[in-house]
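user: can you give me the structure for this one chain? tokens are fine.
assistant: on it. calling the predictor now.
[tool input]
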Amino acid sequence: MYSFKKTKKQLLDNKKVIKVTDFGSGSKIFKSNERKISKITKIAGISNRKAQLLINIVGYFKPTYILEIGTSVGLGTSAIKIANKNASIKTLEGCTETSKIANDLFNKNKFSNINVISGDFKTTLPDVVKNNQFDFIYFDGNHTKKSTLHYFKTCLETVKNDSVWIFDDIYWSTEMKEAWAEIKKHSRVTVTIDVFHFGIVFFRKEQAKEHFKIRV
């Protein structure tokens, strides 16, 4: 956890201002697209508690091929990489300026084998999933019901029996709660675990359909 906090501090100390292109549902807090890196990290970055949970999950399953939808300034990606240094990560970010900050962070910390793909997810996601299978997908993109379900359905072609998916902020809004309810019902989904911060999805055919709620 120390190395994650150390990585996060680098962003918290970064006073650079960038112009953010927002393809998502927008910010509930930021009123302008001109944003300081330190403030993005403080307000929109993954919390230490959630990062620890993500590190624990990735550390337990040790996925090798990982897709992240929503890089932002690279904190979630860093947590994943810290948990499994051997992982190959493709991470999608809508905003080019934000992508540059994330790439700088990865280079500074010598996090290798991370491919940041910039652009609108409507274009980049279908290209990335084509003929690819991922052990692990972390969904942290546009927090609307429509977009979340679109990501979910687009990524289904990548599923292997032991794939693990994590949906961030399933209680962020009524729409996200509705999206999570639909994902749980899907015929390909066998087991889900609701840990409040995240919704974890499994596709193992040998398991009966079950849904769990755990407070961590």
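assistant: here you go. The chain has one domain: 2-213. The mean pLDDT is 91.
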